[in-house]
Design a protein that fits this description.
Four copies of one chain form a homotetramer. By secondary structure, chain A is mainly alpha-helical. Chain A has helices at residues 13-19, 22-29, 32-39, 44-71, 75-102, 107-112, 117-132, 135-158, 170-177, 179-199, 205-228. Chain A has a single domain (17-228), classed as Heme Oxygenase, Chain A, CATH 1.20.910. The A-B interface holds A 63, 115, 117-118, 120-121, 124-125, 127-128, 131-132, 214, 217-218, 221 and B 63, 115, 117-118, 120-121, 124-125, 127-128, 131-132, 214, 217-218, 221.
């Protein structure tokens, strides 16, 4: 069993936003959905409903990265956002479709299911926060998802309650614990620090923490949506 | 008892959008929350929770009218949106605060309560649809609220199950059934027709109907949120 | 002759942005158009062309305040922006029309003239900066106009080269030197300080100065457009 | 000498927008800058200034495609916009830098030159039109550039006054006349038809024509900016 690796270094901006929302954060990263997923006891209908919504979520996430590319104030950030968007629409969505096929879910099934309110709430909140504010607001609202999934996977890998052998959700856990995804999360953590240095100051900390907290709570609702579907 | 007055004439664009979403529309305008409100049997905590969220909703609604003013393509539409926004931030919000005070809810109470996911889902969906599309998309997403409340009040006024005498929610019903609000709704219906004529064609009908339907379902969730709080 | 009253206190954020763009600022506030306007020697066609474009400019400016209302992060800022927008579309535009009528320009004349590239450049730059960034970026891009006109009028009032008696442009100078407009400018200066404190830090100063500088140069181009029309 | 190949089929939406702005269109595609470029007589400083501004233009253009990806209403359109953006930021900008190096212009030279007002006017007009309207407005504002360059190159290839041998600008002409770029233009023409069918109707034609016309005039100003720099 691995020791827990925190994707966000202490004193990173991400770490401070997380610390300012400790209770909401714990409710998200240690949600019953996550714990059952690690233990392999999550009811299959819960996971399937989550998977379908996660596909619809990816579409909105790609739009969020398009918006991030537009709102970037350096060419490097624009390129990083463009790459993230391309990876989502060209690679991740096909992978997701294949993964779902392994669970007996065809693309038509996924597109027939309406977007759940919890998916709409989180994605539209993030996108709208991006329009209302600047690139830092947008990335702060995206961070609970991007970095949170890396933390969740690392927590599961380090948790004695996790069972990998025979766990039907093992591929999910290992994908997010894998170095590819951990690299994505690390890049997001570093970018948040750069954006904060370039655009913010102490007077903005409370507002950023509120934004991060709201996004975190909407992420926890997303897990709950999965559980409720079972 | 009055005969039901439909705020939207047959063959208005609004009427067609509503017809294309008949099931979702009925679930919204005849929601249990609405029926209990008309009968005077709605539990007070349900109404109070609704009232508080409706205040937070108004803030987002004012932002939606600001966005509508920005996205208007005629000076007349810009002025109409500016006036709507001004009425919300200067008049309606104070009225709401007074109304809430009558229910024992102070402004501090309202600002202490976090925005419910159902409030976030609906308002951010509308605002984001406005950014993603044009002024017609924005107004089509706002219409289930603006016009729907007028229809709901008129339905209650025409419903034999409605009890006005001694109904603690009588002021709410009469406000939305009153000529001031009915005029607001009629203006929104007429504007939707004008915007459609200026900006759309038949090829867009399905997408507008989907947008209207999604907003309608999120409005029904808002009523349900109230019921669930009781 | 009055002593020059600076609408922006030393060490206000506005004062620092101005100091960081001293050369561009002086080229704007002491532009030949302005000096000739103060001396009463500006050719009438130059002023008339400016007036017409300034009407088309006001339409875009109203849109900028609509966007500012949307992007505001407090109810107070939202109300201030809504009020500014309402004043522009309900009062200033009618005043402008009346003023132009005194110069023999009918509303139809104004709406027949196409928006000049210099008007498009400045207004679309401001609006787009507002979308790309946050409310502080938007207000920093608006400030050279809002506060600059107050400074220009005060400079003219304090300038021995200014001739008020018999100056055909006297009403223009006195309107912007008047306490109403000076109050608008002072409010904009104070708001910029508040927004900076709430949203920015030192790391953002260079980018804000670049934005302010670009807007200032586009304002100088607007004066030049007037001169070139003579 | 090749016969002129029109990148837009008769009765395409693009063809109608062009026909509605015939005078402005001709002033753009047959601008003196273009004719001198074809004849090889364009002063080198004019071309160099154009090249530098065109690099700064590409940055804004990449942002426009990011916005288009965000505003797309199908996954296919989103992917097409994402690909366009990626091509600009990853390939075209490096090609441009190499091309400029051949003219003795280093990347530092290009980044030291401030964005010309004509570049700002056109790019910010397009971006802002995209925010104010929908994806069709954005693509209609981009079309004079994307499709116009293909038409200009084809016109030059078919023009007896064009001299390719020994023409220092031959590479420029051949790049835009080449099948790669012609394919990009054809895709833009086809997409405009699809977007119109999905989102518009006859009532919108006049507004789209005005938008297209304004963008066309700003493109002509961009050529003039080059000539004026010589």
């Amino acid at each position: 069993m691995a020791a827990f690796k925190d994707p966000a270094p202490a004193d990173s901006r991400f770490d401070r936003l997380r610390a300012a929302n400790r209770e909401a954060w714990d409710a998200y990263v240690a949600h019953a959905f996550v714990r059952q997923l690690g233990a392999g006891t999550l009811p299959e209908p819960a996971f399937k409903f989550y998977l379908i919504q996660d596909y619809l979520f990816l579409v909105q996430f790609a739009r969020a990265y398009a918006l991030a590319a537009y709102k970037s104030d350096t060419l490097d950030d624009m390129r990083q956002a463009a790459r993230s968007m391309r990876i989502i629409v060209d690679d991740e969505m096909s992978l997701h479709v294949k993964f779902c096929a392994g669970w007996g879910l065809g693309l038509e099934d996924m597109l027939r299911v309406p977007e759940a309110p919890q998916c709409m709430a989180y994605t539209r909140f993030v996108l709208e926060a991006g329009h209302a504010g600047d690139i830092l607001d947008l990335q702060a609202a995206l961070a609970p998802c991007v970095v949170g999934y890396a933390e969740i996977a690392n927590r599961l890998m380090a948790d004695p309650a996790t069972r990998l052998d025979g766990n039907p959700y093992r591929a999910w856990i290992e994908a997010y614990a894998g170095s590819d995804y951990q690299g994505v999360a690390a890049a997001a953590v570093a970018q948040l620090d750069r954006l904060y240095a370039r655009r913010a100051g102490q007077g903005r900390d409370a507002a950023l923490a509120r934004l991060f907290g709201a996004a975190t709570r909407l992420e926890a609702d997303f897990w709950q949506m999965g559980l409720d579907a079972a």
